[in-house]
Amino acid sequence: MKRKRIYEGKAKVLYEGPEAGTRVQYFKDDATAFNNQKKGVITGKGVINNRISEHIMTMLNDIGIPTHFIRRLNMREQLVKEVEIIPLEVVVRNVAAGSLSTRLGIPEGTALPRSIVEFFYKADELNDPMVTEEHITAFGWASPQDIDDVMALALRVNDFLIGLFLGVGIRLVDFKMEFGRLWQGDEMRIVLADEISPDNCRLWDFRTNEKLDKDRFRRDLGGAAEAYQEVARRLGILPEGGPRDMKGPEVMQ
Questions:
Q1: Could you point out which of 37, 41, 49, 60 has its C-alpha 20 to 30 Å from the C-alpha of 9?
Q2: Is the pLDDT of residue 233 over 70?
Q3: Is this structure's pTM higher than 0.90?
Q4: How does 131-161 read in b/e, with b if 16+ C-beta sit within 10 Å?
Q5: What's the mean pLDDT in 135-151?
Q6: Cα–Cα distance between 146 and 181 in angstroms, integer?
Q7: What whole-number distance in Å separates Cα of residue 153 and Cα of residue 191?
Q8: 146 Ramachandran zone, left/alpha/beta (phi>0; psi -120 to 50)
Q9: Distance of CA 155 to CAs 50, 98, 112, Å?
Q10: Cα–Cα distances in Å, from 28 out to 45, 100, 203, 241?
Q11: What CATH superfamily classification does 3-83+224-241 receive?
């Protein structure tokens, strides 16, 4: 069946959903870094990320953290609620790494005194600049109440994920989230959207500090596909026989 493509990002495609108020989210194997300056493919990544994100979003829904996730449809697709995406990337940091280390000169791997939440404006052409609550409210990207809701949800997700990953010997260094407004009649609530996977989490083996995330691709460390599989294996969700490939849906322009 041909479906109308709504939006294509670097790692996923959104299609029109089967019912009103739904979308189909398709996970690609494409990998990008440094705002699309570096491009490649991590074989089977879409299959693995679909499974990992399903696993985590289901647990978050179960503990009362609202998400856009409804159910997984097949190896590469999941059914999600249609939301109005807030144009912010919300990053929660527990350990210094990446741009925080570069910006502030804090050695990578330094435990932070507390979890830090940062906001970045979603604009590839501007390299997703870091912004403050002042910018967010002044330019109308989100209201003060929206920001409060996002902060509270982000920290709850962080607490849950720290425990989840710790239980399988992985340190959650930092991760990126996106949130959306879910409209039900006149009622609006903020929900977690996008995905949670090794694409947008920094995950280090607890004992060895080996990187089990997209940094393997970013930094040319090799073994990215195996690292993603290792995360899925530890979480107990690697599909039998490993990630088989699957053709994407046909696109109707």
A1: 60
A2: yes
A3: yes
A4: beeeebeeeebbeeebbebbeebbeebbebb
A5: 98
A6: 9
A7: 8
A8: alpha
A9: 23, 20, 15
A10: 7, 28, 20, 19
A11: Phosphorylase Kinase; domain 1 (3.30.200.20)
